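Predict the assembly for these two chains.
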Amino acid sequence: MSLDRIFNIAGSAMNAQTTRMNTTASNLANAGTVTGKENEAFRAKRTVFKTILEQQQKPHEQGFAGGVRIEKISDDPSPIRKMSEPGNPMADKDGYVYLANVNEMTEMVEMMAAARSYQNNVEVVNTTRQMLMRTIDIIKT
Amino acid sequence: MNLIDNALGVHAQALGLRSKRMEVLARNIANADTPHFKAKDIDFRTVLKQTREDALNSTHNLHMNMPMEESVLGEKYRMPFNASFDGNTVEMNVEQAKFGQVAADYQTTLNILENRVSGIRRALRGD
C-alpha cells in the first residue's frame, strides 16, 4: 500500500535533514576555533544527499525506496584564512594562526533551509496520517 | 464479489491511484534538496485510460489485470518553471500545491466510496 510507504519516505527525509542540521550546529560551534597549522584548521562540513533507488537499496533500507540517504559528508573547499596573532599560544613560528573556514551567514541560511525542509516533511506525514485514518473509518460507517 | 465491485465502480481503483500519486509527490518533497533529482508526477487521465483499455481487452471475465498500485505507467518527469543550479527540478511551492490538491482528491474519492459502502450495508441489512 502506498500510503504507509509515504511515512518511510518522509521519515528518511526528516532523518537526512536532521543530519544536515547537526553538521550545521557542528560548523557553528567550531566557527571560532584557531590552530597553528593550515592542514589542521577546521573545515566546514557539508552533507550530500542522495535518493534511495529501488535497485540500490541496502538491507536496512527495505521499503524506503524514493527516500533520501546521506551519501557523504564532505569538507567545504573554501580557503582557510590566516591571521597574524603573535600573542596567541597556538600561533606558528611566524606568529600566524589559522581560522576555521566557517561562514556564519551561510550556516544560518543552511539551518533555516534544513528546518523548512523538515517542516515540509512533517506536513506530509500529518496529511497522510489523516488520509489513512479516514480510510480506516470507511469500515465503521 | 461482482456485485460489490460493480457498486464501487472505478472509485476503488481511483483511490489506489490517488494514494500512488501522493507517494510520488511525497518522494518529490523528500528529495527537495537532493542534487540531480528529477521531480515526477502521475498523469491521472493516462492511467485511467490505460486501465479502461486493459479491462476492455481482457478476453475472459476471470482474467485479472495487474493491480494499478504496482504499475509505474503514467509516471512522468515534471518540467520545472525555473531550472535550478544543482540539477534538481523539485519546486517546493508547486509540490505543496499539488500535494494539497491530491489530498483533496483523495478525500473526494473516499467520500464517494463511503456513500457506496453505506448503501451496500443498508441493502444487506434490509431496513
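Strands of chain A lie at 34-35, 45-51, 68-75, 82-84, 96-99. The mean pLDDT of chain A is 90.
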